[in-house]
Amino acid sequence: MPVYSAFPDIDIPSKDIATFLLEKADARLGNTVSDGNKEQPLAIDAATGDSICLTETKLMAYSIAGALADRGFSFQFDPASFQPENVAVVFSSANIRFIAINLGVLMAGGVYTAVDPHSEAEALAQRLLDVQAKVVFVSLDLVPRLMEAIQLAHLDIPSANVFLIQGSQEPFTSISMLKPQKPCVLPMLSAEHLASKVALITFSSGTTGKPKGIMLSHRSIVSMYAVFGSAVAYRDTFAKHRSMSEQHKVLSAFPLWHIYGFALLCYQSLYSGNCVVQLRGFELKSFLQAIEQYKVDRLVAAPSMLHVLFTKTTKPDSNHLAIKDDPMYKFDISSIQTMSCGGAHMPPFKLEQCSKHLNIPIVSAYGQSETLAVFTCGQMAKDSPSAAGVLLSNSVAKVVDADDQETSNYGELCVYGPSLMKGYLCRGKGPMTKDGFFRTGDYAQLTADGCLFLRGRIDEIIYTCNGRIIPVDIENELAKHPAIEDAAVIGLGSKGNQQPIALLVLSPAATIESLNDIEQWLEQQLGVSIACREINTIPKSPAGKVLRHQLLKEYLPSLENI
Q: Which family does it belong to (predicted)?
């Protein structure tokens, strides 16, 4: 039988995203004003100190929505289509105005998507073609690359449909110069239409190949926040009428074209009232400076960021961190209360080490872009610290074996819930079971009370002549060796006759005489014989996922004779 969340189901509001979020934010602002407190910022640019509050966000969003309506945006759409119309692309480095841009696009009936600002013109052109972009919001410095991409894509995007996020340049439109507009009156959509009306297209990390466009509906996003907001472990953060004067400051270095970073800045700030301190990327010194300067009390980080925090800093006293290569500077981190880690797997041993080093609790969660980032909450799995969390309200899951039969052992995790994506761009609903569960591709086990345990991806399992080897199991063990800074395990050869290889990044302080020492140690620990090879770095996605196909491509020639 499928496993249902142990938490009671909640009613999902039949509202579009903009209405849902602004009702929450307006109610909180009304309480703040009645209490005599000053309106607090929704977000702060960590580098410049610039901020944006709810009132400013709404005025900018109304102006953007009006401008898009003038360019043909509307709520008309084909519910059955997997190629949405009226797509607005954002091509810019991180900017706190993304909150207003996203709201404006949604208020106009459009679809929002963002592209990595480091993309070259060819990659950007392909993305513009994939989504059939109608308008583009761009930072001034990236205009030349955008123009080149539009030419390469042979798309008809007139200059009037190119909006500058900051600054001005003829013949483009600066959003700061848009005419003020009255508040938008949004159409009332049925629950069926809310479930099929695409609001956001985000792209998968491409760990196994070409990234896929993941289409998330208004109902998907509203459901996730309604469910997550009801979670017992987060009730203090998401209290309905908490004054903005009591807001938490959350530091994020996640890229805003990634679902985790985007949702944190553009949605959580409005829903929860937390102030997001946004960095334009992760750099250790800037990260620590922002904690100290803005008295940040909550951190969100990918495993790769945690890894740097642990390996590149020292702790001279209980309240400070110092950078190993620059010990002259100490940064006060005493304001931090908790940290959330997500986006990729992190060995439990390393997670525990980081928590002790920083002296703060680290909460993990599980989710995919297809499930809108979060499907479980680790903080609720108090009796199972090694678990990826427990199912949130309104969620159902099951695990199936290779014959598609449900099992209580490890197998493929399949999930069902209101936050699931509509489907893949131009590809349909994606891999589904006959009874409508989404196949995640994750190798997992579920307990009867909804506690989830993960062991990586099914397509990463190595099949040797002696049986199966799970790369995550080996990587978790390698994380315990003091000479190893990072590790990834891949399989060479054809299925059934693969040979596992551990690719290692050694610590600068490593004192081992040869890799044979690690091979012997690993065989003693796990009883398996695995060849080890040293490499300089392990390629990972921005969220910290190991890019195994890239590892194979880069290192296969040098490993063929092993």
A: Belongs to the ATP-dependent AMP-binding enzyme family.
β pairing state of 162-164 and 133-138: parallel
Question: How crowded is residue 57: how many other Cβ atoms within 10 Å of its Cβ?
Answer: 26
Strand order through the sheet with 313-317: 313-317, 320-323, 326-332
Is the separation of the CB atoms in 17 and 61 below 8 Å?
no
Instruction: For residue range 230-289, list pLDDT tens digits in order.
Output: 764 444 444 444 444 467 999 999 999 988 889 999 999 999 889 999 999 999 999 999
pTM of the model: 0.91
- Token digits for 287? 């990260």
Q: Which of 451, 422, 449 is nearest to 438 (CA)?
A: 422
Q: Read off the tokens for 420.
A: 């699931």
Quote the crossing angle between the two packed helices 54-70 and 98-107, to the nearest 10°. Answer: 50
When computed from its CA atoms, the radius of gyration of the chain, rounded to whole angstroms, is 24
Give the chain's domains with CATH numbers: 231-366 (3.40.50.980), 461-559 (3.30.300.30)
Under a CB-based contact definition with an 8 Å cutoff, are residues 241 and 32 in contact? no
What would the pLDDT profile of 109-157 be if each residue is shown by its tens digit? 999 999 999 999 999 999 999 999 999 999 999 999 999 999 999 999 9
Under 8 Å between Cβ of 407 and 23: no
Look-up of token digits 């609720």: 380
Residues 6 or more apart whose Cβ sits within 8 Å of residue 22? 58, 103, 270
Which of 533, 451, 454 shows the shortest CA–CA distance to 492?
533
CA-closest candidate to residue 21, choices 136, 124, 106, 135: 106
